[in-house]
Amino acid sequence: MMAQNDPIVVGIDVAKDKVDACIRRLALRQTFPSTPQGHRKLVAWLRKHEVGKAAMEASGGYERDWAKVLRQAGIEVRIVDPKRVRSFALSAGRLAKNDTIDTEMIAWFAETFDAAPSQAHDAAREELATLVKARKNLIDVKTRLQSQNEHAVPGPVQKAHAGCPSKTVVLIEREQMRPSEPPLSCFCSGLG
Fold first, then answer.
1. CA-CA distance, 142 to 1, in Å (whole number)?
2. Angle formed by the axes of helices 82-91 and 99-112, to 10°?
3. Each residue of 89-145: pLDDT tens digit?
4. DSSP class of residue 191?
5. Are the C-beta atoms of 109 and 11 separated by less than 8 Å?
6. Helix (H) or strand (E) run with residue 68 in it
7. Given Cys at both, which of 3, 23, 37, 155 links 28, Cβ 3.0 to 4.6 Å?
8. Does residue 99 contact residue 20 with C-beta atoms inside 8 Å?
9. Which range among 62-66, 149-153, 187-191 has the greatest average pLDDT?
């Protein structure tokens, strides 16, 4: 049970071109487009209702811009694991899945597990995670191309396949490298 002095929480379901938001305590719901104007409207709506904490599921990176906007507005942000929210919803008997239910479940989850500390935003860690993911994807592409090259691919195509992903991986590592930091391959075994 939430005390009246607990911060008001909003649950946010992030999609590519919009977010759905639910302030469960006040029984309010709203949808905002993923545009600068949508960002401003969401912040204004949250301020109007004195929201102190936002919870949103990790959703393939779409949540990053929204989290940044909310943090800049002084709202605490928790990125929650979608599997935990889904398990929470199932345990509450909410088997349906749609944006309205998702936002309510995210808000309820954040209210229920309010004692869990919010992760401090770490821009450097976020950038590193993005670089590691990009590098891993490029290595996956390189592996697929090498497999294709084993099956009668013309020579010029083989050369193009061999050079492109490798050069891009090197560029990513150079971009990430700073004098005091090891290369990305030190953080991810098997990616090199």
1. 52
2. 90
3. 889 888 767 666 788 999 999 999 876 555 556 667 767 777 777 778 777 777 777
4. -
5. yes
6. helix 63-72
7. 23
8. yes
9. 62-66
